[in-house]
């Protein structure tokens, strides 16, 4: 006898992080490490993605399926919002954040984004080496080649 679960279409595995796939089949979610070139070595970012997928998948699925409005405190708790401000303080908070972002050196911002993008694929020693190389290059650029 066929059940309602048998009639439910199976979803294919979707990447939720570079190296982590999630396959949802009815009430079961299967998390699969997908980094064969690294023998599925776990990076800090991958550990975080695993934890987040396991912790928030039911809540995220519920929010998406019901299209409900998420209160600010819940959005912050789930990591959907970084900062909460009262409505009357929103314009000032946006102005403060914009000023802070525009004050960052463009080269430093570019380097930071590059390091963050490559971090999920790096082992800790590789990431430390990349950060050291970036810092050395930035110091040489600031001090005209002298890094003593």
Describe the structure.
It is built from six helices and three strands. It is mainly alpha-helical and 148 residues long. It folds into two domains: 84 residues, no CATH class; 64 residues, no CATH class. It has a three-stranded antiparallel beta sheet, covered by helices on one side. The radius of gyration is 21 Å and the shape is flat. The protein starts with a helix and ends in a 5-residue tail after the last helix.
Radius of gyration: 21 Å
- Helix fraction, binned, reads 40-55%
Mean pLDDT: 78
**Whole-number tally of structural domains:** 2
DSSP strand count: 3
General shape: flat
Order of helices and strands: HEEEHHHHH
Figure out the total of helices.
Answer: 6
Terminal CA distance reads 77 Å
Indicate the proportion of strand residues: 5-15%
What's the story with the biggest beta sheet?
Answer: 3 strands, antiparallel
Structural class: mainly alpha
- Widest β-sheet, arrangement of strands: 1-2-3
In the predicted model, the low-confidence regions spanning at least 5 consecutive residues are 1-11
């Amino acid at each position: 006898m066929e059940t309602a679960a048998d009639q439910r279409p199976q979803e294919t595995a979707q990447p939720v992080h570079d190296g982590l796939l999630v396959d949802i089949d009815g009430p079961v979610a299967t998390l699969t490490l997908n980094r064969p070139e690294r023998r599925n070595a776990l990076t800090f970012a991958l550990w975080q993605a695993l934890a987040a997928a396991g912790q928030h998948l039911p809540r995220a699925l519920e929010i998406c399926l019901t299209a409900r409005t998420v209160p600010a405190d819940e959005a912050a708790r789930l990591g959907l919002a970084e900062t909460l401000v009262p409505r009357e303080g929103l314009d000032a908070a946006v102005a403060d954040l914009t000023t802070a972002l525009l004050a960052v050196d463009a080269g430093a911002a570019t380097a930071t984004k590059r390091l963050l993008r490559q971090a999920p694929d790096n082992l800790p020693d590789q990431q430390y080496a990349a950060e050291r190389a970036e810092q050395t290059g930035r110091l040489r650029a600031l001090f005209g080649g002298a890094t003593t």
